[in-house]
Amino acid sequence: MPIPIDFSTPIRISAKERAFLQIQQWIIDGTIHPGERLNDVELADALGVSRTPIREALQLLEVQGFIEMYPGRATQVTKVNQEDILKILPPLAVLQALSAELATSLISKPAIDFLRNINNNFAEAVGKDDFYSALKLDEQFHKLIVEVTGNPYILKMISTLQAHVRRLFFHKSIILTSTSIKEHEAILNAFEGQDKDTAANIMRTNWLRPIEEFHSRLQG
């Protein structure tokens, strides 16, 4: 199992959390391939931790659907099913729409200005076909809105689903388009107008639209 050595790791977190985040990232971006077997000894050596936090991290990854564990036989990365977009995006759209609705009455003008700046950078990245940067900016845009709600339960559920969205992006199931730029701006306008229904509706559309685009690519 090839493991890169030139990776950065977060600081001031537990060994289990660090292992979880790094292995998850390798699975998401395809460094560790779908179907590949994982060796806890190799992972422990690569991350400089004992096998215990590795095993704990792998258990969390199994719960989240990134790996499959077969006791006494093997632990391997789950396959990527492009049609999972049809299962992941609808609940994520509901949670994101709820976040937009709740954030409307809480968000400050400086926060809206900051989000608008992120969207401008997002537009620039999309215009340059720099879709990796665009993905990171899109995630930042939506995460900040969720954080405004002050609801850690919503944030945690969205974070789990978002990780799978990120994996689908790296495997070409989700494509970022310029339509999101306009939708982001419309959400910000709704925030400024204290129109929670419009903010929620546009947010839901923003997350469900990739399903339509997915169907269009299949038909094309």
Structure description:
With 220 residues, the chain is mainly alpha-helical. It has two domains: 15-77, Winged helix-like DNA-binding domain superfamily/Winged helix DNA-binding domain (Arc Repressor Mutant, subunit A, Orthogonal Bundle); 82-219, Up-down Bundle (Four Helix Bundle (Hemerythrin (Met), subunit A)). It has nine helices and two strands, in the order αααββαααααα. The protein has a two-stranded antiparallel sheet. A hairpin with a 3-residue loop joins strand 1 and strand 2 (74-77). The two termini are 37 Å apart. The mean pLDDT is 90.
Lateral arrangement of strands in the main beta sheet: 1-2
String of helices and strands = HHHEEHHHHHH
| Domain module tally | 2
Rg measurement, Å? 19 Å
Q: What is the top-level CATH class of the largest domain?
A: Mainly Alpha
Number of DSSP strand runs: 2
Number of continuous helical runs:
9
Mean pLDDT: 90
Strand content: under 5%
CATH superfamily of the largest domain: GntR ligand-binding domain-like
Helix content: 55-70%
CATH topology (level 3) name of the largest domain = Four Helix Bundle (Hemerythrin (Met), subunit A)
Shape: globular
End-to-end Cα distance, whole Å, is 37 Å
Secondary structure category? mainly alpha
Query: Uncertain spans, ≥5 residues at pLDDT below 50?
Result: none
Main β-sheet: number of strands, strand sense, barrel status?
A: 2 strands, antiparallel
CATH architecture field of the largest domain: Up-down Bundle
